[in-house]
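User: Please predict the structure of the protein below. I'd like the answer in structure-token form so I can feed it into my own downstream comparison script.

Assistant: Understood. Taking the following sequence of 200 residues as input:
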Amino acid sequence: MPLELFASLLALSFAAAWTPGPNNALIAASGANFGLRRSLPHVLGITLGFPVMVLAVGLVLGELFQQSAMLRGILRWGGAALLLWVAWQIARSGGLGGRPESARPFTFLESAAFQWINPKGWVMAIAITAQFVRPEAPLATAGLVALAFLGAGLTSSLAWAGLGRALARWLESPARLRAFNATMGALIALGVVAILADAV
């Protein structure tokens, strides 16, 4: 991959990873509610889950996804429904669980699996691989794309979790924590609406 194309890939991957979206709202809420240390499995799930998805899309699934309207529809609406449910759970409670005693951060596997039903993730994976994965060197170029998103995902997830953690002292007031969680839930819901509007 030419250097200028790789620089463009890095810029795009960092912009995509750092802008607000479902992953960043979830990890900020986790940082605020559970702290940075307990949110590390969630951070690592995002960091590794999305690059693995990008690699798989670049090598195999992108063509299938582009050819199957039914698969696109199932993923789009199923992912949107799950994201809206997660947004509702965050917005109405003191944390990511339904009741305070059962609240817990996402595990590594839950966070990694979440990438596969995140509509924003699929849109990004398809768009990025279509632009940067070269048919003459699919493994090498898909690997570079995945590597770029690995770095972008790690830095943004840590930063968003850290932001949530930094706000934790201010959020010690139950009313402020409820308002913060409602805001994070609303951001996720608005992101879903924006993604679905773009797809129509």
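That's the full token string. The first helix runs from residue 3 to 18.
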